[in-house]
Design a protein that fits this description.
It is a single chain. This protein is an alpha+beta fold and 482 residues long. Strand 11 and strand 12 form a beta hairpin. It contains 18 helices and twelve strands. Bound molecules: glycine and manganese (II) ion (MN) (2 copies). Glycine binds next to loops. The site of glycine has 7 residues, from loops.
């Protein structure tokens, strides 16, 4: 089934809107959808992606949609009028009434009927929709400052509903992860010296496409894993390199998966690569073990940091007591990002709403290098899905950073660290559901042990010979549902 097909019942969306209306005391709400964004000229747009809050409450993936939610969740859906010219170029679309039925709205009207009003609303990332919403509510909406220009009560209500996943949403995420697992295994099997990073990426995204799914975010497929958001360049992979692959499919209704695996191009880790991989895996597993309701996500981050700091001390890259090193942020020279983030309709879920959503109450983002990149500082709740993605990187620019060198001084063995440059980066990322009494690793089927990886890498056909068997695999009986 294509990920773009409607699989949730209309009552799911109607129920969410009733909850939202109740949370804001039945004040009228405007939810605006995204417009198409041109690639170069208007008729040549980028692939469309709906605003995630609109998707959550309406499930409608058509551009230029809007909705007014009133008392008791009564909903009027607004969509572009259906015209003969539109049907000529794009085919006949479902009627407005059909679309209203899909999302359980009480009525549907052409978007040209949408009138200004004193609505609660929130900023959008897409500027055309944002400008339209701002005009209707008569005040500016700034996605960079959602609490300053949106409505705080609406933001809090939306965040409280979007924070935790129900069973339908978890199924959609499992579905995305099924395609993501296929893609990672196919990529491992196809890897060998001489194959390009972009061929591996094409193979993976071909597998997503065979499942009817787009990528949830731009894939990272690179032997320069120390460039955190680096991308494939077409470079042939070399024996001795590590390939870092951070790629995930977007499943039904827009639910993301987000998975990183790192493997040796040759199929066998060098002794140093093996040590680093084992340390990152130990950090990943120790952090996952901590996941349960009531635990602060920041403590999960600090747990991963301590495991990595201990390894860095053992190798002679850090010097001192582990707790002191982590408090000082010395580990961040090698583990500079946070342990992960919320995962849902956005790959960094709710990040559009900034720290108003992700650092609630009086929690304040650290100014320390490393900890300041922690994307979430909330206590975990059952139903949240978070990523757990520790990594170790040798980043020349960070090792040369004078301010860091002065602040951290002897805690880092800078000269020894320079000798490790060239290792690149290792990250291992899983998607983890917080359950009532612990955790469920939704991505546990994606190989990550050293033994599994060494067995799989290079064991299959190279990329150009590979897509046809991958297609056959995706269409095998039982595949297509989780
Ligand atoms: N794929 C982006 C991230 O892991 O946060
Ligand atoms: Mn992630
Ligand atoms: Mn990722």
């Amino acid at each position: 089934m294509s990920a773009s097909q409607h699989v949730f019942e209309p009552s799911v969306f109607a129920h969410r809107r009733r909850q939202l209306a109740a949370l804001v005391g039945d004040r009228p709400i405007l939810l605006m959808g995204h417009r198409l964004v041109p690639r170069n000229y208007l008729a040549n747009p980028l692939p469309f992606r709906q605003d995630s809050t609109f998707l959550y409450f309406l499930g409608i993936e058509e551009p230029c949609a809007a909705a007014i939610i009133g008392v008791g969740g009564h909903t009027t859906l607004y969509l572009p009028a259906r015209t003969a010219q539109d049907a000529l170029w794009h085919g006949e679309r479902p009627t407005l009434d059909d679309m209203a039925a899909l999302c359980g709205a009480q009525e549907a009207r052409p978007v040209s009927d949408l009138a200004a009003g004193p609505y609660l609303t929130l900023p959008l990332a897409e500027s055309g929709g944002n400008t339209h919403a701002a005009r209707l509510v008569g005040r500016p909406l700034d996605p960079a400052d959602p609490t300053g220009t949106g409505d705080r009560d609406l933001l809090d209500a939306v965040v409280s509903l979007r924070l935790c996943r129900d069973e339908d949403e978890i199924l959609a995420m499992r579905w995305a992860l099924f395609a993501t697992k296929e893609a990672h295994v196919v990529a491992m099997e196809a890897t060998r010296p001489g194959v390009t990073d972009s061929a591996i990426q094409a193979l993976m995204e071909g597998v997503f496409a065979l499942h009817g799914m787009p990528t949830a975010y731009p894939s990272i497929v690179t032997a320069r894993g120390e460039v955190l958001h680096g991308h494939a360049t077409g470079a042939p992979l070399q024996r001795g390199e590590l390939l870092l692959v951070d790629a995930g499919a977007e499943g039904p209704h827009g639910y993301a998966s987000d998975i990183t695996r790192t493997w040796p191009v040759s199929g066998t880790f060098t002794p140093r690569q093996r040590d680093v991989y084992a340390a990152v895996l130990a950090a990943n597993e120790a952090a996952i073990e901590l996941v349960r309701p009531g635990v602060a996500y920041k403590d999960v981050h600090l747990c991963a940091a301590r495991v990595l700091a201990q390894a860095l001390v053992d190798w002679g890259l850090l010097r001192g007591d582990v707790d002191g090193l982590v408090e000082q942020g010395a580990h961040a020279v090698f583990f500079p990002h946070g342990v992960g983030h919320l995962l849902g309709l956005d790959v960094h879920d709710l990040e559009l709403f900034g720290d108003a959503a992700l650092y609630p109450g009086d929690r304040v983002r650290s100014e320390q290098f490393g900890l300041g990149y922690l994307r979430l500082d909330r206590d975990l709740e059952a139903g949240m899905v978070v990523t757990i993605e520790p990594g170790l990187y040798l980043v020349p620019a960070i090792l040369r950073d004078q301010a860091l060198r002065e602040r951290l001084g002897d805690s880092v063995e800078w000269v020894v660290a320079e000798q490790w440059v060239g290792l690149g980066g290792v990250r291992i990322e899983d998607d983890v559901l917080v359950t009532e009494d612990g955790f469920d690793v939704l991505s546990e089927a994606i190989p990550k042990s050293i033994e599994e990886i060494e067995e799989i890498v290079g064991s299959g056909l190279p990329p150009r010979d590979r897509l046809a068997p991958a297609e056959a695999k995706c269409r095998a009986p039982g595949v297509g549902s989780p």
